Amino acid sequence: MAIRITKKIKAYSVATPDEKIVSPAPADVAPAAPPTAEIIQMHERLERPETLVGATYKIKSPLFEHALYVTINDIVLNPGTEHELRRPFELFINSKNMEHFQWIVAITRIVSAVFRKGGDVTFLVEEMKAVFDPRGGYFKAGGVYMPSIVAEIGSVIEEHLKAIGLIRDPGLSDAQRALIAEKRAAYEQTIRRGGEAAAATVLPVGDVVVTGEGAGFPPTATMCGKCNTKAVVILDGCQTCLSCGYSKCG
Q1: Which residues share a beta bridge with 74?
Q2: Is the pTM for the entire model greater than 0.70?
Q3: What is the residue extent of each domain of the chain?
């Protein structure tokens, strides 16, 4: 490479083959951007840190004498950067009830292995919530129907994944909340008047009970096929859910 000399030569020396000739950088060339750290993705070869963050959830089912305590620990990837991400890493289930110890240990190991594998782990939620107990399910606090213990564990995993941002919960819009409040008010007003025969078969408003999570529904309400909550009443001849607003006539 030819180098143009623009100044007088005051001294010189002979360069050896081992020496590198450093050419000055042009003044109009911007300095190179500083190197950035490599983004760490979740994969099965990622080693477990000494400390993990997590949460413990309590499951109290009428099918079990003792409560189940589900602990989900998360690993924080790329901490302190704009790419910081919290991903589930392992799951533990603890209980005094040793009757179902085998399948509880199996669930913890399989779910933890799926967590460490990386990728989209949200499919576990739907798979576990679709498990039905042949002996029948139960209603947990809030009037939400759980078809099995495994389904409630799946519901706990869903709640945790929503908390760390892996599952986006659209929730109810302001218009939907206003519609549900309007339907609830109309239902209570119908009960007070005692006008319609369909509404006369249900208990008065004073018998409405709080079933959990701040939601009060009549004890005679039936289960909603959309949100699995025991909150469906008859309003203007239509089955109306006071929890999610779903309505069906005919």
Answers
A1: 53, 88
A2: no
A3: 53-163, 174-249
Closest CA to 154 of 130, 128, 133: 128
pLDDT 10s digits, 54-94: 999 999 988 888 899 999 999 998 888 888 889 999 999 99
Dist CA 71 CA 55 (whole Å): 6
Condensed to tens digits (0 to 9), the pLDDT of residues 130-187 reads 999 998 888 887 778 899 999 999 999 999 999 998 888 766 667 777 777 777 777 7
Distance CA(179)–CA(66), nearest Å, equals: 40
